[in-house]
């Protein structure tokens, strides 16, 4: 994910791909057009109820949905909305994350780990 990409830019891009105006999106989400405009201009964080509706409304792929969650989380300085439940229900996940933090695991090490997991599940 690009570091300069924001949730607002992402939302505008996906909305425009579907030839949807900000007003049409606002109506579909049951919010004011001004409120949606503020989100698109990164003036306000996106509420959870909008996050839940966007994947279906904008026909997002799994990868696009994950990117959307990550961008929303970055704008809020929180963990992506699709992860907390998984993290909290598995002790080993929390242990793995703390170990990675303690040992300052690199991106390459994480990529290798992801590759191994993906290979094992195929």
Top keywords for this entry?
122 residues, mainly alpha, 8 helices
Structure commentary:
- Helix content is 70%, strand content 0%.
- The protein has eight helices and no strands.
- The radius of gyration is 17 Å and the shape is elongated.
- The model has no long low-confidence stretch (mean pLDDT 93).
Quickly describe the structure.
The chain has 122 residues and is an all-alpha fold. 70% of the residues lie in helices and 0% in strands.
- The percentage of residues in β strands lies in under 5%
Radius of gyration: 17 Å
- The succession of helices and strands, N to C, reads HHHHHHHH
Helicity level, as a percent range?
Answer: 55-70%
Q: Stretches where pLDDT falls below 50 for ≥5 residues?
A: none
**What's the main sheet like?**
none
Oligomer: single chain
Distance between the termini: 25 Å
Number of helices: 8
Overall outline: elongated
Structural class: mainly alpha
How many beta-strand elements?
Answer: 0
Mean pLDDT: 93
């Amino acid at each position: 994910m690009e570091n300069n990409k924001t949730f607002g830019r992402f939302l505008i891009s996906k909305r425009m791909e579907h030839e949807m105006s900000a007003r049409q999106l606002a109506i579909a989400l049951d919010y004011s057009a001004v409120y949606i405009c503020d989100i698109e201009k990164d003036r306000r964080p996106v509420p959870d109820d909008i996050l839940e509706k966007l994947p279906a409304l904008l026909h997002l792929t799994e990868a696009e949905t994950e990117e959307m969650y990550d961008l929303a989380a970055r704008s809020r300085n929180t963990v992506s909305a699709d992860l907390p439940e998984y993290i909290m229900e598995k002790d080993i996940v929390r242990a793995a994350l703390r170990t990675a933090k303690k040992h300052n695991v690199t991106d390459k090490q994480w990529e290798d780990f992801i590759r191994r997991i993906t290979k094992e599940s195929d």
